[in-house]
Amino acid sequence: MSYVLEIKNVTKRFGDFTAVDSVSFNVEDGGFFSILGGSGCGKTTLLRMIAGFEQETEGELLIRGESMKGIPPERRPVNIVFQNLALFPMMNVEKNVAFGLQRQKVPKQEVQSRVTEMLERVGLVGFEKKQVTELSGGQRQRVAIARSLVLRPSILLLDEPLGALDRKLREHMKIELKLLQKEIGTTFIYITHDQSEALVMSDTVAVMNQGHFEQLDTPKNLYKNPATSFVAGFVGESNEFDVAGYTNGELVTANGCRLVKPGLDFEPKKLFVRPEAFILNPAEDLSDIERIDMTVRTILFDGSNTKISAVIGQSNDEVLISLPQNAQFEDLKEGDAIKVGIHHDDLKCYRD
Ligand code: ATP
Which of these, 155, 118, 129, 123, lies nearest to 28 by C-alpha position? Predict the structure, then answer.
């Protein structure tokens, strides 16, 4: 297996504060790897250590098998695209992209051919002489990426580059970036607090929390099998229940539901259920299914999806349930009593 990046027990402390806490992981060459986490979890610090802007307090970082200890940012085979893009506003597109090559004293003819090739790859042919101030947000993104990729880094680091765009353009750029990475084949390491960006674009996602990785997995596995309660709550929508007890394969939630969940070898404290895991009015003969009585509180229609907010039994605890795109439930209304089923496998239990 060829790893472009190996991170071995890397820790970063600022005084007494540990921003990155003994993190270890490898990144395969040519993939799209995202680090997903909330504000202050340490993802920028980790990225800055890979780029060489920050020195690790402990541990080791290797790129293509070579230790980066003491190697300054400009001598590392990585490039970084920042959220503000940091383009040169006084230069046209071509000059922005050529800048790094000229600084490296690459011969003029080679600069020209590499810039031309790169602008073709990012779909900016015809924009060479435009000032960057005349471009749209998405086009500026592509200039920033071209300017970095033209230097042929082993890794392109992207620090929330879609953060400043409006929602529609962001949705569009997610697809563009994913396709561009696949076409070019350079390893992308992308940091974001936006789970949808991470899930849509990445081959692998690391979920970061308080300086450590909670789970490193494919987007699908992160969603389907969250390893910790933090991931279950952070990635995607989930209903969270406190568990009051577990005996003989049956758990009791704090709001009084009794649910059979066979085979746990630990005492669960939290239970998570995805809104789409609930089955409304399940057929009587379905086995392996737990059933809960609920009352519809309100219907939440947002165009492409419909959810209902329901309450369990006599409690006030709200549960979100996704409705299938199915005319069968169109008549549901506030106050209706419903029976809600859940497969045992969809009861995700955690010890804390
Ligand atoms: P955000 O998405 O808000 O940028 P982040 O996950 O990128 O968050 P970091 O910027 O890596 O977080 O910061 C992690 C923690 O380390 C934060 O609590 C931050 O205050 C702290 N920190 C970062 N840089 C320094 C520094 N130079 N000196 C002291 N503390 C720092």
Answer: 155
